[in-house]
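Researcher: We're reviewing a set of sequences before deciding which ones to prioritize for further study. For each one, I'd like a predicted 3D structure that I can look through quickly. This is DegT/DnrJ/EryC1/StrS family aminotransferase. If possible, include the structure in token form so it fits the rest of the review sheet.
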Amino acid sequence: MTRSFPPIPAARPVIGEPEIAAAVRVLRSGRVVQGPEVAAFEEEFSALVAGRSCVAVNSGTSALHLSLLALGIGPGDEVVVPSFSFAATANAVRMAGAEPVFADITPDTYCLDPLAASAVIGPRTAALMPVHLYGHPAPMDGLMELAARHGLALLEDACQAHGATLHGRPVGSFGAAGCFSFYPTKNMHALEGGMITTDDPRLARTLRLLRNQGMEQRYANEIVGANMRMTDVAAAVGRVQLRQLPAWTEQRRANAKVLDSRIAGVSVPHETDGARHVYHQYTVRIPGGRRDAVQRDLARQGIDSAVYYPVPIHRLRPYQDQGGPVLPETDRAAAEVLSLPVHPSLEQAELERIAGAVSDAGGER
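Model: Here's the predicted structure for DegT/DnrJ/EryC1/StrS family aminotransferase, in token form for your review sheet.
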């Protein structure tokens, strides 16, 4: 007889009564696009990024794209990025007319390795774009030094790292700009949306022009822009979520500690000294070609898991024209990583079940 297990989903996006009430309030107001809710969300999100100016847009990808454009990066330029990320990281570079150049990652945090990035900097390099992957800060000290030494712009892809810090400094406050996503499965969401952070008032103004057809005043277009505005409905939901983010982050970190202490037989996530991981994903390593079998075992027990990312960006069809850079740590991570549920709504019994199942399935065979 097959035993039935209650399912444990990889993520449980929160859309509760406060979010619904906020959305209804905005809909009833008639002010639904780029209105007072967006302005309030920008001001409130600023507290998360050391008081930087915030510019709300319609997605994390738009945040990356517009930031590159506002920084003047385009045709003829190269941007150093990790290949171990979601395709949007490189897609934004291509959409700006520039070319992504892929560098390897550090094996412990899966973030862009400053030494590997240094090795691919050339005469056309205009920027570094590290990703704070899975919610762990990238090694910003080394990357900031590298950017300063070569006169490069530094753009943070913080789409998975709301509230993460390094030596007490929040991600999104290190580079010329930082970019966040509010997709429903992120640590906080706005149904959909993105945010750009910067400490440069001129850059912030350019970003606001770019998101709104190049206009600050209606029909007074100053530059060529697009419609990448955030709706007031999304902003109202985001404001509710932002207030809950600190508690959710603490619960994610507590859940991660339980998993750390209970899982055996596989490598649990690393947290660098001085870093505050916010565990957008709780990602273990399962070497020896056993990862897929472990994932199947978990699925049979009703435990959802995911591989982020099974195919590095440089091996995706749009980027295979780069001649195949040698990225051994990236390829090894893609073959070994498995992300487990860590979201705040998990119960202690579910955490115990996850840890036990991974330990049983992941042990050496």
